[in-house]
């Protein structure tokens, strides 16, 4: 995680905010380790820009595990940093937004010096 964090930070321009969104669409068993690794690497620190975490359901395997994961989330992040979505409800909107970002990026790439500096998928 520290290597990924350093690579993302290196891609930000001098004086530009280093805002990040981590979109987690994982098996319930992986949320604890992933969130803990993000926190321990400093990737959730908002000193150089905003940090948001999108968590897709399923969030836990039952009520007890969901409450445990929610406690972990609250210990690592403030509530305004967390977005919980149901991937079935968000799928169409995400695909629409992604396609428009692609279109706008091509159309206005020569006119603007701002935008998404990098994306990483693992």
Features:
three-stranded parallel sheet, 12% strand, Rossmann fold, 3 strands, 4 helices, 122 residues, single chain, alpha/beta
In short:
This protein has helices at 2-11, 31-40, 63-76, 87-108; strands at residues 20-24, 51-56, 82-85.
Could you explain the architecture of this structure?
The chain is α/β, with parallel strands linked by helices. It has a single domain, classed as NAD(P)-binding Rossmann-like Domain (Rossmann fold), CATH 3.40.50. It has 4 helices and 3 strands; from the N terminus they run αβαβαβα. It has helices at 2-11, 31-40, 63-76, 87-108; strands at residues 20-24, 51-56, 82-85. A 3-stranded parallel sheet has the order 1-2-3. The longest helix has 22 residues, at 87-108. The relative contact order is 0.16. The model has no long low-confidence stretch (mean pLDDT 77).
Strand portion: 5-15%
Number of strands: 3
Radius of gyration: 16 Å
Q: Structural class of the secondary structure composition?
A: alpha/beta
Biggest pleated-sheet summary: 3 strands, parallel
Rounded average pLDDT: 77
Helix-strand pattern:
HEHEHEH
Number of domains: 1
CATH superfamily: NAD(P)-binding Rossmann-like Domain
Q: Give the C-level CATH assignment.
A: Alpha Beta
Strand order of the largest sheet: 1-2-3
Q: Termini separation (Å)?
A: 11 Å
Q: Helical region count?
A: 4
